[in-house]
Design a protein that fits this description.
Strands 3-4-8-7 form a four-stranded antiparallel sheet, with helices on both faces. A four-stranded antiparallel sheet has the order 9-6-5-10, with no helix packed on it. The protein has three helices and ten strands; from the N terminus they run ββββαβββααβββ. A hairpin with a 2-residue loop joins strand 1 and strand 2. It has a single domain, classed as Pnp Oxidase, Chain A (Roll), CATH 2.30.110. By secondary structure, the chain is of the alpha+beta class.
Length: 151
């Protein structure tokens, strides 16, 4: 995620998850990211996954099969304990169903150290590629393998 902090662009790696029509993310309370998110400025959050490498007979046509998503929204801090727990329950149970019921809920000290933000998704765009090599007819005779490799 890119944010503007004191007129300087910063990139931050984040863990984010969706619950209903909102995106949630957490960070250190009082930190630069928490202060920026709390400011209400427009956010642009991007995600990308490369699934496969597409190998071709021409250096120019090499590619990747991928999925990418860009979301826009404005963050608001989550202060209600029930919403805080529901948001963390969602991501923990997405990773392993039923795990929330097996672990200890966050205590007061952990809640104070964690800034949780809800970002209603205002707009988004998805782009992907999935397929094999696209070759020029004259390259087909080259004695080099072409196909798809796992990333």
């Amino acid at each position: 995620m890119w944010v503007l902090w004191k007129k300087v662009s910063h990139a931050s790696s984040i863990t984010a998850w969706r619950l209903a029509d909102d995106l949630y993310l957490h960070t250190l309370s009082g930190g630069r990211l928490a202060q920026t998110l709390a400011s209400g400025q427009q956010l642009c959050i991007s995600f990308a996954v490369t699934n496969q490498w597409v190998m071709t007979k021409s250096a120019f046509h090499h590619s990747a099969n991928y999925e990418s998503l860009v979301l826009f929204g404005r963050a608001s801090p989550v202060s209600d304990d029930r919403e805080f727990d529901a948001a963390f329950q969602a991501i923990i149970n997405q990773i392993e169903p039923g795990r929330w019921e097996q672990v200890r809920a966050p205590n007061a000290k952990e809640r104070k150290a964690t800034a949780l933000f809800r970002i209603p998704i205002e707009e988004g765009a998805f782009k992907s590629r999935d397929g094999g090599p696209g070759e020029e007819p004259e390259d087909m005779a080259l004695p080099v393998w072409h196909g798809v490799l796992p990333a």
